[in-house]
Please model this.
Amino acid sequence: MEPKKNPQQDLNKKSSLYFVFGLLLVLAMVFVALEWKTYDNVYDFDIGLNKVDKTIIEEAPIFELEIIQPPKPPILPTEIEIVEDNDPIVETIIETTEATTDTEILEASNIEVIDIPDDLEVIWTTIEEVPIFPGCENEKDKRACFNDMMQKHIRTNFRYPELAQEMGQQGRVNTQFMINKDGSIGTIKKRGPHELLESEAVRILSKLPKMTPGKQRGTAVKVSFSIPITFKLQ
Model:
């Protein structure tokens, strides 16, 4: 029986070879596709556009800034300067009372009796017996002891008003107070640079203790005493 096809024209003989070539071709296409790279277009700019024309003159605006002052630092504790009483001293001339041959003898009707009024006021420098500050009863120089105790009392009770410190108020307050006939503290007068400092000076003097009253001719009288209190910021 003769075959229907020519053996030389049989395509199945080379099918495996064609398969290998096709497979290589596909692999090559896949490799090229995976390794394919693209790049962005490069644009060239003319840097001449960035050059500034020197003929053009521009004036920059001027701004004025307000300087804010920093807050004031806290005020440190202050020192108090105590000034002793510097009122002028008025000398009292005491004439002798001893009788001599030239002494005129007066009749009883000619004797003038001087009564010391109840509201008599004597200043510190002319009082015969000064008021006695508590603690000075046994001291010989009661005036000096009185001044020392006054300074100690002011230093102990001194408080600089905080508001006066913030306002920068300082200066000397001249004060004058009355020691009544019973030894209590009476009217207090003050004069200073600010009412806050005056109020503090009055507060200090109002805390003075009761004293032994001063005497004039053996009778208790009112005695006025002056002392300045200085408020000084450091």
Summary: The helical segments are 15-35, 142-157, 162-167, 195-206. Strands lie at 79-82, 121-123, 171-179, 185-191, 215-216, 219-220, 222-232.
